[in-house]
Automatic annotation (TrEMBL):
UniProt entry keywords in alphabetical sequence: Disulfide bond, EGF-like domain, Repeat, Secreted, Signal
Pfam families for this protein: FXa_inhibition, Matrilin_ccoil, VWA
Compartments, as annotated in UniProt: Secreted
Signal peptide: 1-23
Organism: Pogona vitticeps (central bearded dragon)
Keyword Disulfide bond set for record: yes
Official protein name in the record: Cartilage matrix protein
Domain VWFA: 39-214, 270-442
UniProt keyword Transcription regulation present: no
Gene that encodes the chain: MATN1
Entries under SUPFAM superfamilies matching the protein: Chicken cartilage matrix protein (SSF58002), vWA-like (SSF53300)
Major site of localization recorded for this protein: secreted
Length: 492
């Protein structure tokens, strides 16, 4: 028994090391994750829209992020700005040398419960919080300057210019939005790329789930693949201080050595997204839809000769976000998708389908003659108009139609839109948070493969030509023999 117990403990420790703890990969924990020295300032909204119990949840979030940091004068220094109509410097970067006293100071912060002057708070961070007098290491460019803004509403002052000034000064800004926050404001505040610097949670009760993200942000590991400090789209293969990129099964690595395509060989495709922007979608879910679009764009070999992408949003009206061919590479397409604003009105799917048929795949909208046409229609509810005629027309014109439904989408309408076989062109999920799973399936299905019937016809034609040539050759040989015999007779 004395031998068995240590052996079991050793097995448990090895298993924990292999699998990670609480779902966090082992390379992001413990001694493998010394956090890089940083000057970090939290800018926290405590306006009247933030209830006292919600502000307590914000403090828990701050504390959990701080707990993962190496706090100290030569490591990470932390400051906290509390703002509403006015700004209060709760904790300076120079104040706390020990993590325990810093956490205690955070627990003592009280909400101000007035207006929402987010721009003023960012200006305060520039002028004071990140100043040398308050403990910022301004003469050490190798020390990262980071601000995390947490807010739940629309600011009462301008943020765009002041946030731009902060970023120009080298401050990396993360924007965390809660509840009915204005997403446009978050994008104005945050650093690029926005996908990595803008986060949204439905309520303060779940803000704690962002803790892991920020633990990984501040994690300093020599393995670039482990930190995510690489450009690989799918798989990063570490090789010492460098790395190489690879692709998942079914994908091929593009010429750039970083991105992957499900469409091997760079198939020429004109792809148009038709996206429901009705009010039932809700702002937070619309952000997930944009990520879904970019997930599919990532699988394409975008170029003038291969894949082109267009985007239409519809609600009570139809709005072309950008036509086919306007953007020549993935990065520009994805940036345009992220900039798309939410229409938030009705659901006129039929009108949108008619626009697709009449306008989207025309040469004047960038479509290329002879190139396969693919449309992905995304909706979350019943159409307020008639869809059958436009959906039928699209399929008659040879468009490959995919229908993706979420939540209250009507199955019969999705089936009416989808191409045959319907089971391969129609998808549904009850929850917006799982649409990325549909995205994975679509990545391979949107590839336009050679028509096997066309290939078979070519093979038959080639065989027929070969047989005719052989028959003609035999006849020529027979004629040649007869001519030779006739020549011999004449000679005799």
């Amino acid at each position: 028994m004395t031998v068995l117990v240590p052996a079991l403990l050793l097995c448990a420790l090895l298993l924990a090391q292999q699998q990670g703890v609480n779902g966090v990969p082992p390379q992001l924990r413990g001694l493998h994750c010394r956090t890089r020295p940083t000057d970090l300032v939290f800018i926290v909204d405590s306006s009247r829209s933030v209830r006292p119990n919600e502000f307590e949840q914000v403090k828990v979030f701050l504390s959990k992020v701080i707990e993962s940091l190496d706090v100290g004068p030569n490591a990470t220094r932390v400051g906290v700005i509390n703002y509403a109509s006015a700004v209060k410097n709760e904790v300076s970067l120079k104040t706390h040398r020990l993590k325990a006293s810093l956490l205690q100071a955070v627990r003592k912060i009280e909400p101000l419960s007035t207006g929402t002057m987010t721009g003023l708070a960012i200006q305060f961070a520039i002028n004071r919080a990140f100043s040398e007098g308050e403990g910022a290491r301004v003469r050490a460019p190798e020390i990262n300057k980071v601000a995390i803004v947490v807010t739940d509403g629309r600011p009462q002052d301008a943020v765009k210019d002041v946030a731009a000034r902060a970023r120009a000064l080298g401050i990396e800004i993360f924007a965390v939005g809660v509840g009915r926050v204005d997403m446009h404001t978050l994008r104005q505040i945050a650093s690029e790329p926005l996908d990595e610097h803008v986060d949204y949670v439905e309520s303060y009760s779940v803000i704690e789930k962002l803790t892991k993200k920020f633990q990984e942000v501040f994690c300093a590991v020599s393995d670039l693949c482990a930190t995510g400090d690489h450009d690989c789209q799918q798989i990063c293969v570490s090789s010492g201080a460098s790395y190489t990129c690879a692709c998942k099964e079914g994908f091929t690595l593009n010429a750039d050595g970083k991105t992957c395509s499900a469409c091997s060989g760079g198939a020429a495709t004109d792809l148009v997204f038709l996206i429901d922007g009705s009010k039932s979608v809700r702002p937070e879910n619309f952000e997930l839809v944009k990520r879904f679009i970019n997930q599919i764009v990532d699988s394409l070999d975008v170029s003038e000769k291969n894949a082109q992408v267009g985007l239409i949003q519809y609600s009570s009206t139809v709005r072309q976000e950008f036509p086919l061919g306007q953007y020549k590479n993935k990065q520009d397409i994805k940036s345009a998708v992220r900039r798309m604003s939410y229409m938030e009105k009705g659901t006129m799917t039929g009108q949108a389908l008619k626009y697709l048929v009449d306008s989207s795949f025309t040469p004047s909208s960038g479509a290329r003659p002879g190139v396969p046409k693919v449309a992905i229609v995304f909706t979350d509810g019943r159409s307020q108009d008639y869809i059958n005629d436009a959906a039928k027309k699209a399929k008659e014109l040879g468009y490959k139609m995919f229908a993706v439904g979420v939540g209250n989408a009507v199955e019969d309408e999705l089936r009416e839109i989808a191409s045959e076989p319907v089971a391969e062109h129609y998808f549904y999920t009850a929850d917006f948070r799982t649409i990325n799973q549909i995205g994975k399936k679509l990545q391979s299905k949107i590839c336009i493969e050679e028509d096997p019937c066309e290939c078979e016809a070519i093979v038959k034609f080639q065989k027929k030509v070969d047989n005719l040539i052989k028959a003609l050759t035999r006849k020529l040989e027979a004629v040649s023999k007869k001519l030779a015999a006739l020549e011999n007779r004449i000679t005799i």
